[in-house]
Amino acid sequence: MASSTASPISQTSAPESARAGSPQGAIVIGASSGIGAALVRRLAQEGANVAALARRGEELEALARDCAAKGAKGRVFVHVHDTRDTELVPELLETIARELGRVDLAVYAAGVMPKIDKQTYDTNLDLDMLAINFGGCVAWCNALAGLFKSQRSGILIGISSIAGDRGRKPNPMYGATKAAMDHYLEALRNRLSESGVHVCTIKPGYIDTVMTQGMKVFWLISADEAAKRILSAARSGANVRYVPWRWKLVGMALKSVPSFLFRKLNF
Amino acid sequence: MKRARAKAAGPERAFEFVEGWGMTVGAHARVLRPRSVEELAQCFEVARRDGRTLGLRGGGNSYGDASVNERGHTLDCSRMNRIRGFDSTSGVADLEAGVTIEQLWKHSLPRGFWPRVVSGTMFPTVGGAAAMNIHGKNNFAVGTFGDAILEFDILLANGELRRCSRTQNSQLFHAAIGGLGMLGVFTRIQLETKRVHSGNVSVRAISTRNLGEMIEYMEANRASADYLVGWIDCFPGGDAQGRGLIHHANYLHEGEDPDPARSLALEHQELPANIMGLFPKAEVWRILRWFGHDAGVRLINLAKYNAGRLEAHGEPHLQSHAGFAFLLDYVPNWKWAYGRERLRRGLIQYQTFVPKETAPAVFRELLTRCQRAGLVPYLGVFKRHRPDPFWLTHAVDGWSFAMDFKVTPANRERLWRHCAELTEVVLAAGGRFYFAKDLVLGAGDPERFFPAQNLAAFRALKNELDPEGLFETNLWRRAFAPRK
Fold first, then answer.
1. How would you classify the pairing of strands B26-33 and B54-57?
2. Tens of pLDDT along B103-124?
3. What is the ipTM of this complex?
């Protein structure tokens, strides 16, 4: 874990200090690959200082080196973190906030989708997925909600999935964690809206990442393209955004299929 | 992968922006939220281990920097908020210090009791109210919040829990009430509430054409009134200088309310969530924002003054205790009208306490100086006070005039200089200040208004009970500048 050094945030007596002028600060949880890594690259490229969190330290280090090599204006701070370790979150957030100097935006992109077959009903596997995909999301979003609300500013992005729109056969728990995220983020958005904090739910379709490798996919976009659209959606105040847009049609179609038909589909 | 699974021990912690209620001062800080005396003691250890000081915070309703500690951690005491007991015969409440005034009145009123002293907002904790020794619209009649306290327990920096009352550890009792959270942490407060025979008070409005009329009316009625508060339009000069509106309220006597059970019920006390049943009050600050400049406030004040003149022609009317007491809670987050998004925008309240002999001339002088400087308060509030025995009390046998000033990045420096000039006028007249509001006094100023022996005794007690300086806030460093 990167060590926390003395930072402006601890010394700012606020009014005059900090906010204006200094580079933006962003946190990406689940940053080692896929959409998370692409968001880190984009944010650093834009000039933001970014804290990148994931379980795999080597990937994060490589990402940070790569950003620096490509001439990113912002710095990337690496933190090895398992989102199941929810009790470590408040302390880690403080460490990160102090090293970034300020926190303006945070993304919860951590998620796993283990491949399971039709016969599998594995409680341990499912509860582990629940802890990573949703438990970690709650821990981080709660801590960030406290910070953002007290600042009366901040953008919180949750990477959900179109898989949360219906209970599909292939992976019941994956869809359930995403549906839980949708519900939780919506409530958080409503709670925080009057404090000037925006919460944005992103529902990606097929993105060219490890998760979609070996799947039959269509309308595929690159992770970088997805990152670009995600940031622009969140900054323009979108509440729920399918990425790319056309997946919204798929979502609407999925939701409108009656149950007796839906169970016949192998989707 | 092996992961730490141990349940995080000790108090809840967070990292937040901790700011004064007026939004003009604040800093990011670690916030510790203990739930018990044991966790509270652990917070002291955390601070020592980190080499940091602790700034105590209750509801965070002090306008200035009384609960801001940018060089250390914040100790938020609001989670220790159990009502330990309430004696329905005597009205004595036994409270953990994080209990809010809202919790207290909602518990006591259905039992026929109202807190003796409440602030204009119901969100402060009783611990914070004791530490700042707050007052209400009845200061002239019943004293300050501390006057209603019978006994408290305070956790000292060395971990000792000390019980204090007027007879037991009475020095600490009189120092810690109004002691700005510098001597220890209140853990339990026992206070008296007042028996009431109705959930309503009888309220009369009196329109006054200038400051002289306001003082005259309040002075003539303070022997019989239970509450007196004056609103002042700070814009007009000349004969209309200090014009405003007094609200004069009295408790109902036994038998005057035909159905006290109904009026004492909480349903009768709730502040409405909507205006005229339609417009959500939570959104009102957005509209107020359009009036957040001199011309807008002039307009609002003119409307309010004239509405007050109409109201004054009417008969006294009944109003619920909560409706009358918590005027500041009518429009949620109204302070955001001063600017929600941007830091450095907000308000300060500059409240002056002046002895009755010099008050009229001093307040006219203050108003005149404000008008001449073009820095006119958007809200002026006028109250009568009486002295109390607490070492660092702001209360005088005289009057207070509170002025809300809008703060912007552009006017900030000029406003502070302006207030410094006003401070000279107030101090020359034997006036005092109140740290639940203040953000403008400097080092050495307290020496100029607190009796020297009180301040010396307070500093000595601080050195004795907290020799390492565990408890500190921006306020303490700013105005009391302890030698390190």
1. unpaired
2. 999 999 999 999 999 999 999 9
3. 0.90
